[in-house]
Each structure stands twice: as C-alpha cells, then as structure tokens.
Amino acid sequence: MKKTLIICEKPNAAGKIAAAIADGKPRRREFKSVPYYELEQDGKKIVVVPALGHLFTLKNVKPLRDYPVYDVRWVPAYEADRRAARSKPFVEAIAEMAKDADEFINACDYDIEGSTIGYNILRYLCGPDAPKRAKRMKFSTLTAKELRKAYENLLPTLDIGLVNSGLARHLLDWYWGINVSKAMSSAVEAAHKRFVKLSAGRVQTPTLKILFEREKEIRAFVPEPYWVIKAIFEVGGQRIEALHKKEKFFDKSEAEKVHEICRNKPARVAKITVREYRTAPPPPFDLGQLQSEAYRCFGYTPARTQQLAQSLYDNALISYPRTSSQKLPPEIGYAEILSRIGEIREYGELVEKLLGREELKPHEGKKTDPAHPAIHPTGESPKGLTGPRRRLYDLIVRRFLSTFADPAVKQSIRIDLDVAGQPFYFRGRRIMEKGWLEFYGPYGATEEVLLPEFKEGQELMPTELVFEEKETQPPPRYNPSSIIKEMEARNLGTKATRAIILQNIYDRNYITGNQIEVTELGEKTIEALLGYCPEIASEELTAHFEREMEKIQNGQSDKEKVLEDAKEKLNKILEKFRKHEVEIGKVLGEAYRKTRRAQKVLGECPKCHGELRIIVSRRTKKRFAGCSNYPKCNYSYPLPQRGKIVPLGKTCPECGAPMIQVNRMGSRPYRMCLNPDCVTKANWGNPRKNKPQ
DNA sequence: GCAAGGTC
C-alpha cells in the first residue's frame, strides 16, 4: 500500500490536521513519546507527524576562533545545543516514518519559517529527492473545514520562493550577528586579555539604539519652569479644581498678573458643553496586546506573560498564544465556548447576558495571522488554577466576553468659567451605559468624575486661587511593554521573539530597570556599532533584508547572489573593525567594568557615607550588602540569597535604607529596602495570610 | 561564548 507522510509544524497542528482529513477517527500512536496519527484513505496509508518548530539549526563547521566566518551548515538542533534535546525524538520519529513513504506533504504554517522547517525536514530526513517530489498544504487557520479544503487542493510543489528566502534569512542573520558579535568580543580580548560576552544583531541592535536615543533625549533635556493657576471651589461638599485655560504660563510676570487680576474675584459659569461618545469594545487579544494589558494590569513583563500564556495553552485552557491575529472566526464556536465559560461561577451572569442575544458577533481588530485566530479561552474548566496564571486567565476570559458586548457610552462635561475676564475650565465624566466595560470588569475601570448641577450664568466664589510653579518633564523612559510595542510598530522581530530578545539585551547588561535605562556598556556598544557598523544599528538592515527576501520569493533575485553581497559588505566592515580593534576594545572593556561595578552598588552607607555593595563572603559563600570602607566601617545588611538583585537608586520612605528589587525566576519581581527591621516588613511572613488557622 | 527564528 502507498504511504503518504504529512509533516506538521507542531504536535497540536498534527492532531488537528489528522482529524480534519480523516473520514473516521485517526489512530493516535506514539514513537519515543512523539505523537503521530495514522489513517487509511482511498487505498493509501496516511501518516501525520509533527515537528517541534525548527528541528535544524545553523552551526559553525569549525569552532569560532576568528572572524569573519561564513562556513556554516544545517545540523539537527540537538547537536548544536544541549538545551534542544527535546527535538531529538522528533527527528528520529520523522526519519522512521519517512523510510517507506512514497509521497510527502509539507503541512507546516504557510509562512517563511514554516516553509523552511518543512524543507529542512524533507531534505535531511526524507531522502535527497523528497523536496523535489513534495507537495505543499496551504491553510490560514487550523479549522477542520479549511484544513480539509487545503488537503483536497494541495499545491503540487513546495513554495520554493518562500523556502529560499527563509534559508537566506537564517544565513544573513547568522552572518551579521555572529561576525559582528565576535568582532566586538575579540576587540575586548585584544585590549584587555579577557573575554566579555558582547552581541549585536539585526533586531537587538536597532532596539538598543531606540533606547539609547531616548536616553540621549532625556540627558539633553533642560527642564523649563512654568506656572499654573488653579481656582479651587467647594460645591456641595465636593472639591473642584478649575485650571486656567492657558494651561502653562512660561512667562512668570504674565502669570503673576493674571493671578493678581483673579484674586478674590467670583467666577461665572460661562458655558456648559455636554458631549456623549461611544467607545467600541476592544478587539480580542493577539500576543502583543495581551502582553501590553498584562503589564498594565498586573505589572507582568512581556516575557513572563508569554511564559504564563504558554502554560495556560499547555493545559488546554486557552488557544495558541503566539498569534498576531485579532480575528475570531465563527468556526471556533462562540456559543459553545461561552456556555462552557458560563459554568464557571464568576462568569455565569455575564455569559447569560451574551447568550441571550440574537446574534453573537465579536468586535474584531485589523491584524491577522497566517495560522491562528486571536487568543481566546477554550471553555475547558480552569479548576484549581491560582495565582498569576489565574489572573492572566481571567484577563483573557473577560477580554473575550467584552469583545461580544455593546459599546460603552460615556458623557463628558466641560464647564468654562469666567473669573474677572480670565477663562478657566474643568471637566466631568460619567458612564451612561457600561456596555463592554461591565464584562471587562476591573481591567476597564474608568474613573467617573461626577459633578454637581451647574447653570450657565451661575456665580461661584473660589475658596482658593492656587499659583504653582512646575517644571516641564523629559520624555518618558520606555518600559518592557512600551518598547515591545515600539518594536512591533517598527517591524523588528516577531511576536514570539520580541520579549526574548529584550530579555537578552538585559542579560548582556546593556540596559537596566523597568523604566529602561541604557547602561554605560549599552551606550559604548551602540556607539561603537554606530561608528564602525551603522548598518546593523539601523532598521534599514531589516528593511533591506525584507526587500531582498521578497525578491528571492518571487524569483527576481538569486539567494546566492544576495548572500555573496552580504559577505562582501561585511568583510569591508569587519576589516575596519579589525584595524581599530584595540581602541574599540579599550572603550568596551572599560565600560563593561564600570557597568558591572555599578550593578553591585546598592546605595550609601548610613554610617560613614561610603558605598554599600553586594559582597559574596569567601567563608560562607553567602552574599550581603557591605560598606566599601571596610575594614574602617563594618556596616552591613543581609541580602536575599536567591534571584537577581537590582539596585533601585532610591531610599525607603519609611526608614531611609537603600531600596532593591529582587528578580526571581518564575515569580513576580518584588521591591524592598535593605533594613530587616523596617516597619514596611512588620507584616512579612504573617501567619494569618499563609496558614489559615 | 556569538543571531533570530520556530517549538514546549
């Protein structure tokens, strides 16, 4: 009997594809714990087998001693990296299934990476002529109907354009990233005779540059004083603040004049403007939006949210999280998911309201995804789910419910006042119809500002006229959520990699803090790159790649030619690097030393005004905060022994001791002061909270 | 050691 092998990108997709094309139920089997599916149809045997993303990766042919290197080949991922051990049984399973197969179908996601994943599997595991004979399944959602249709309308060959651009993408990223990273590390070695792990890449370096530019803006910012004038009223026991219409006075004498004119003068209500407006329900979550909301609502970093969402997905509670889609196709079965969610106590009432409607129609967003719908709950019971995963699940459920609800109707009121000819105003806001806000619950809370009744012409006497000096503020720092949004807007990285690449930039000590600051090392690194390899620091490289990829895709450009061009360009850049190796290395090595030292300084010693630093005891190997003037000063504080300690550069408002943040794997970072006897810790380890008696 | 991309 003939045998067809269908190669899928991941286990979950293999299950869905097998179920969709089988007339009956496919048989689920396992090979070295890799699940695969068997079915018989039209007199032939079909085997559906999953990959685990990329099973092959690029590896240096020779150990990397010097640059430039372009001698690189594809190897099974587990051979290049011990951490990829999980991919080994998948490689073995596919090789086994391919042995007696005479037809091959690449059914990975229909995008550049999916085409590359399938192509590598075909050429390395299915025989030398498999890529030429293989067919391609093309689908844009994993719904049974579409999968069935894709199977019945197979593309007769691989999408060789996508394959070639995928292969080129991997090689180009590797050429640029590995060589420039190596050049920087070698420079430090040449100047300081020590190894420092430095890196550059098509995504990480432009991202660092964005952060660095903001850093420069903040440093160059000169605050300007300005003055505000506010009239304060007490109406029916309510305090109302009206601001002078010219919100900022940059001319002090002008402000003083206005203040003088208005002093002790009554206000007259000049105009009341009432406006009603509707806010549409939010679209369902794509990964980026989920990361952004989880940061806003819970303070979770995008990397943490991604990890939590993956865990919810592993437990079948939510759909595939690495999606850029804001669409919910009807095939997911709105009513069924809703009614199952309705069985969860806290959502019962809300769900009833939605199910009682004539039509269920989600308010979708614009973004789409080649293989997955927006993130949504599956309806599976979240029994026993607690802590951060529960919170994230609640956010996802409420977002899903909100998307089916009505717009919210809000009313804004603006009251314009006249005080001795000077214009002042204040605003009120009320919610007329809650609409989706009711479903989004705590995450959509908008503060109402309810005002007493006013009439035009009415007179009021201010209880106070405030004259206040303020300063203009520098542009805000990026935080992990806003920089990821910026990366998305600039098309840097992908939904699945942005949070990881940001984490990498932190781990390299290029940046620090939640309000992201660029360290000395980050600054010198980006400056060196701007000086010697501006290409890699510019988003233009990504744009250039993209144009070339597109040309390769539609056959207008040859992959080999694009790669040769890249090598030539890189060789010139790296030569320049080499020539200035010692001077570049000196600067980077020095910056590295300073940055590492700064990370150990926690604050000022309260006893002698020396520096409190993280010190690891030689004797006990435990760490503590000790004074830099030791042995003259022996002041010290204990430190938590686990997790990364980040100095906050602030002191405790209660006791004045330096503040730190503790980042521990798998838990939310927390802030504390160093003083173990501080009143802020009075309730720590409160048995009432931990153990109900 | 070094990238960015996919997966769990």
What is the CATH architecture assignment of the largest domain? Answer: Orthogonal Bundle
Number of domains: 5
* Total DSSP E strands: 24
Radius of gyration: 31 Å
Mean pLDDT: 92
Give the proportion of residues in helices: 25-40%
State the CATH class of the largest domain: Mainly Alpha
Unreliable runs: 687-693
* CATH homologous superfamily identity of the largest domain: Topoisomerase I, domain 2
**Structural class per helix/strand content?**
alpha+beta
Rough shape? globular
Major beta sheet, specifics?
A: 7 strands, antiparallel
* Chain oligomer state: single chain
Number of helices: 23
CATH topology of the largest domain: Topoisomerase I, domain 2
Spatial strand sequence of the major β-sheet: 14-11-12-13-10-9-15
Strand content: 15-25%
- Roughly how many Å apart are the termini? 68 Å
Summary of the model, kept short:
The protein has 693 residues and is an alpha+beta fold. The chain is built from 23 helices and 24 strands.
Describe what you observe in this structure:
The chain is α+β, with helices and mostly antiparallel strands and 693 residues long. The protein folds into 5 domains: 3-158, Rossmann fold (3-Layer(aba) Sandwich); 168-219 and 477-592, Topoisomerase I, domain 2 (Orthogonal Bundle); 225-281 and 408-471, Topoisomerase I, domain 3; 287-403, Topoisomerase I, domain 4; 605-690, no CATH class. The protein contains 23 helices and 24 strands. The strands form 6 sheets. A 7-stranded antiparallel sheet has the order 14-11-12-13-10-9-15, covered by helices on one side. The protein is globular, with a radius of gyration of 31 Å. It starts with a strand and ends with a helix. The model is unreliable at 687-693 (pLDDT under 50). The chain binds one DNA strand of 8 nucleotides through residues 9-11, 50-55, 57-58, 60, 64, 77, 84, 86-87, 90, 108-109, 112-114, 116-117, 166, 169-170, 173-182, 184-185, 195, 197-204, 310, 313-314, 322, 493-494, 496-497, 500-501, 504.
